[in-house]
Specification:
alpha+beta; 7 strands
Length: 206
């Protein structure tokens, strides 16, 4: 096997990128990007610490839960959780982040790269007054690059195709899997009980 460890070796295999793939990269959010973010109820944010150890975190709420402040600024609320704060801890050390936005039923995605900071400004927190529970902090991202990603990956995966959905019973409950992984001693309930617990947690804490 041959390790591809230089840009030259990489380009020798893949060739130059398509012109449109390069030219579609924007340095600010245009109306299409803003509309996509406004429709998205789900996004993932990637980060890395000062050593380069990477993490990716899923985030979700109602459509438009991530706010567009201006052409180069978006605001992501950080809700109460298990207090691991992996993303936030990484941002403190290394502010570079990447984001991927999803809209149910739409096979295209939106990619955003930029520089993040953690804010507790009352005026920024107040922008999320339309949600049931206020965020603890706001992740403010200064957009450096934004571009729409083609539909092929979601089409291949059939992510939105109901016929491709997996029966939840195919996997054990989250509690069962974590108990097996950690050997922790706690009561494992049913999937229905787990769903009720998380629904109650969302209603109580956001």
């Amino acid at each position: 096997m041959t390790k591809i460890d230089t840009q030259e070796k990489l380009r020798a295999i893949y060739g130059a990128p398509l012109e449109v793939a390069v030219s579609k990269c924007l340095s600010a959010l245009d109306p299409h990007c803003k509309h996509f973010i406004d429709l998205a109820p789900f996004a993932v944010i990637s980060s890395a610490d000062s050593s380069g150890d990477a993490d990716v975190s899923p985030r979700g709420d109602g459509p438009g839960f991530i706010k567009v402040l201006d052409d180069n600024t978006i605001l992501m609320p950080d809700r109460p959780g298990n207090n691991r704060v992996d993303t936030l801890a990484n941002i403190v050390e290394n502010p570079k982040v990447g984001m991927l936005f999803f809209v149910p039923g739409i096979n295209e995605t939106l990619r955003v790269n930029g520089v993040a900071e953690i804010r507790t400004d009352p005026e920024l927190l107040a922008l999320f007054a339309d949600t049931p529970k206020p965020p603890v902090t706001v992740i403010k991202v200064t957009v450096e690059e934004a571009f729409l990603h083609c539909a092929k990956s979601l089409m291949r995966s059939k992510l939105w195709d109901a016929s491709a959905q997996i029966d939840r019973k195919t996997l054990p409950t989250l509690g069962k899997m974590i108990k097996d992984q950690t050997a922790a001693n706690f009561e494992v309930g049913t999937q229905e009980e787990a769903d009720k617990y998380f629904a109650a947690s969302i209603a109580e804490r956001g």
